[in-house]
């Protein structure tokens, strides 16, 4: 019996447990079903009818209304006139010939909604105060104005709250309240006075909303401008740091070695015995060329170190230096002949580009074709035309493996910077030809 009793109690417990679980399961499913039903009845319709439309109205709808506001006002006037005109006789005892004017007095003030809502309110209120004194209302509730015209008043109240000064907002409330108290039944007057205050308050709330949105947009724009300025300043700082580094490296490498060349060339006649006058003159020419190159390197380093490019105001090579360049190149051993035609003086930018093109062309000729004859033809006119031709070299070219190969692209870029053109390439006899055409008075090329 003990076992049976235990068994019965166990069965009873299991049975009670199952029944309890079953009841709770049925209750849970029922609650979930009720919740779904309530969701279908309340939450989903609210989302569809209120939340989603308000989100659309707050973003796309508002932008659409602002963009096409005038068209929408005219459309509303047309619709309201189409409603008010035929229904004048249903609300007031007015001759049929006066129906268009009667309807226009209540509807057309809406045209002032965007430009001058206070003036629109005045043009509505004055006829509204006179009409009930002249024409008797036939409305069941003794409402003295057409409903379509009254909707115009409510729209104007909101617009006054949005755009007009506080003094005009207060005057609008007092005038509207007096109008309601004078012409509406006592059972309706007080309520509509509060209603007018509510519509004006709605306009003031919308004004605050628009102002906050505008301030937020302006603040975001200012933040974006500050971020842009900070990025520009950071980029300038990085650029200045990079320019300073390049200038330092150039000074440590190029300027130092050029200074050593000058010192060695100038002291050679004192350090070496048996130096003839011709050799001494050659050393002096080398030192002079090195000094000029060193001065140009130092000017370039000054440009790199300066953020405002003030060293660019220093004298730049011009047409007066072209002849000096040709003579110094000939004195350096280049088999050089030249001819210069014309007397038109080019502008400073063109003169500097001309000098650099000649300098690079002569350097390339002496570097890659030593001993070759070089011919320079230069013409000044509406265009500065330069032609540098070199023949095949008779000596072994110098090792150019360390050259960066940027001479011709650099000349082309300089010519293009003033609106000119440059071409360079080999010719049939094994030589090389550089031709450039530069405007005498260049325009700035961005």
Automatic annotation (TrEMBL):
Stretches with biased composition (Basic residues): 1-22
Location of the Signal transduction histidine kinase subgroup 3 dimerisation and phosphoacceptor domain: 242-308
SUPFAM superfamilies: ATPase domain of HSP90 chaperone/DNA topoisomerase II/histidine kinase (SSF55874)
The reaction(s) this protein catalyses: ATP + protein L-histidine = ADP + protein N-phospho-L-histidine
Coiled coil: 206-243
Gene3D superfamilies: 1.20.5.1930, Histidine kinase-like ATPase, C-terminal domain
Record region (Disordered): 1-28, 390-414
Position of the signal peptide: none
Domain of life of the native organism: Bacteria
This protein's name: histidine kinase
Organism, as annotated: Ornithinimicrobium ciconiae
């Amino acid at each position: 019996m003990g076992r049976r009793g235990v068994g019965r109690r166990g069965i009873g417990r299991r049975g009670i447990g199952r029944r309890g679980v079953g009841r709770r399961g049925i209750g849970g499913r029922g609650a979930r079903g009720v919740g779904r039903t309530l969701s279908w009845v309340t939450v989903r319709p609210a989302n569809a009818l209120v939340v989603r439309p308000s989100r659309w109205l707050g973003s796309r709808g508002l932008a659409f209304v602002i963009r096409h506001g005038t068209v929408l006002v005219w459309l509303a006037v047309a619709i309201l006139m189409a409603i008010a005109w035929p229904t004048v006789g249903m609300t007031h005892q007015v001759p049929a010939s006066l129906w268009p004017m009667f309807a226009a007095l209540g509807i057309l003030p809406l045209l002032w909604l965007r430009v001058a809502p206070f003036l629109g309110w005045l043009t509505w209120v004055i006829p509204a105060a006179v009409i009930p004194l002249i024409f008797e209302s036939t409305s069941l509730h003794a409402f003295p104005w057409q409903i379509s015209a009254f909707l115009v008043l409510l729209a104007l109240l909101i617009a006054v709250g949005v755009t007009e000064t506080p003094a005009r907002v207060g005057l609008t409330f007092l005038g509207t309240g007096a109008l309601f108290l004078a012409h509406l039944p006592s059972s309706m007057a007080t309520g509509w006075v509060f209603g007018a205050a509510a519509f004006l308050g709605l306009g003031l709330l919308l004004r605050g909303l628009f102002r906050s949105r505008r301030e937020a947009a302006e603040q975001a724009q200012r933040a974006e401008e500050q971020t842009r300025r900070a990025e520009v300043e950071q980029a300038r700082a990085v650029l200045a740091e990079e320019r300073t580094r390049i200038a330092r490296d150039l000074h440590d490498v190029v300027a130092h070695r050029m200074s050593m060349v000058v010192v060695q060339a100038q002291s050679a006649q004192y350090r070496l015995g048996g130096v003839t006058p011709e050799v001494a003159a050659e050393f002096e020419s080398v030192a002079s060329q090195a000094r000029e190159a060193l001065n140009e390197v130092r000017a370039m380093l000054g440009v790199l170190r300066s953020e405002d490019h003030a060293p660019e105001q220093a004298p730049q090579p011009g047409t007066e230096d072209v002849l000096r360049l040709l003579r110094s190149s000939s004195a350096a051993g280049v088999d050089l002949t030249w001819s210069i035609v014309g007397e038109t003086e080019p502008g400073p930018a063109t003169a500097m580009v001309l000098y650099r093109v000649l300098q690079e062309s002569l350097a390339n000729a002496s570097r890659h074709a030593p001993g070759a004859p070089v011919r320079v033809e230069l013409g000044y006119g509406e265009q500065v035309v330069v032609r540098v031709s070199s023949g095949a070299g008779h000596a072994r070219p110098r090792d150019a493996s360390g050259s960066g190969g940027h001479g011709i692209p650099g000349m082309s870029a300089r010519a293009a910077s003033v609106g000119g053109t440059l071409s360079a390439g080999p010719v049939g006899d094994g030589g090389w030809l550089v031709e450039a055409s530069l405007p005498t008075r260049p325009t700035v090329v961005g």
